[in-house]
Amino acid sequence: MEDEKIYVVGHRNPDTDSICSAIAYAYLKNKEENTEKYIPARQGKINSETHFIFKYFDYTILPHLIQDAEGKKIILVDHNEEDQSLKNIKKADVLEVVDHHNVNFSLGKPIFFLAEPVGCTATIILDLFKSKNITVPKHIAGLMVSSIISDTLLFKSPVTTQKDRIAVEKLLKIAGIENVKEYAFEMFSAKARIDKKTAEEIINCDLKEYDFNGVKVTIGQVELFNLDKIYGRKDEIIASMKKHIECRELKSFVLMLTNIDEEYSDLFIVAKKVCTIERIASAFGTQPQYNTVSNLEGVLSRKKQVVPPIQEVFLKKYSVNK
Ligand SMILES: [Mn+2]
Predict the structure, then answer these.
(1) Could you tell me the distance, in angstroms and rounded to a whole number, from the CA of residue 289 to the centre of ligand 1?
(2) How much is the average pLDDT of 263-290?
(3) Centre of ligand 1 from the C-alpha of residue 205, in Å
(4) Does domain 6-190 sit in CATH 3.90.1640.10?
(5) Where do you find CATH 3.10.310.20 in the chain?
(6) DSSP label of 298
(7) What per-residue confidence (pLDDT) applies to 108?
(8) For the segment 75-103, what is each residue's pLDDT rounded down to a tens digit?
(9) If you classify domain 199-321 with CATH, what class do you get?
């Protein structure tokens, strides 16, 4: 009998870690079980940073595009929340989860669930390669090290742990990258080039949906070397964000504009109600100016520095109303 396919997939609007960890983990599982049934998959287009990485390592096989999980065997990497996962994920057979995010997951059976508070899924996967005694090939090491560089912003982000640094050191050698700073700069530049992108592409590049006690909010992030060009297109971007919350029936859209050079973020915020914009700004102890919160110094991580304060204000709102 032919082996049934098992799809390894990262989150919606996939970033580099979601794409590359799916590839790396599917590779590991196939080697371990001497099979080809594990298929790297993705939930959408790869971004310009991931595109650069594929080209750099001469990797040409895009993960298989899937959208509906119904009836499929699935392994989740780099996410575990239903809101960030495939359509009908509850109707799938989820076999494993390997992730580095907040755990928000329930299933009616025991599974292999590995979550570690490190900067990147690829860091966890490297451990698994080691524990199973499987060699990391050069191109996989390249994809994995790129994931860690991307998720930790080359160690600038507060999500970075010592384990991520050690993993990068090991993987750089296998991947044959000599100058990590230069390589990271090229990677980030590929992502930061927004000239040729439409407003819709810019806002969709890296966004995640959250359900804060019934309030659906999307939080996106654009990483840039300076924010001038994005402010030059502010009207267009705000319009596109408004359209997005209408289409997906969200309460609000927060877009982090992260200056990775000077290490701060501004926020563009749109919401159905002005008071919601104010509430979100209040999470950062400030008032919004024309849909904008400026100069959040040192704020680089959505997961650690933006999601928790916003979540807190929505929880507060609910406890007051109840
Ligand atoms: Mn990740």
Answers:
(1) 31
(2) 94
(3) 14
(4) yes
(5) 199-321
(6) T
(7) 80
(8) 999 999 998 999 999 999 999 999 999 99
(9) alpha beta
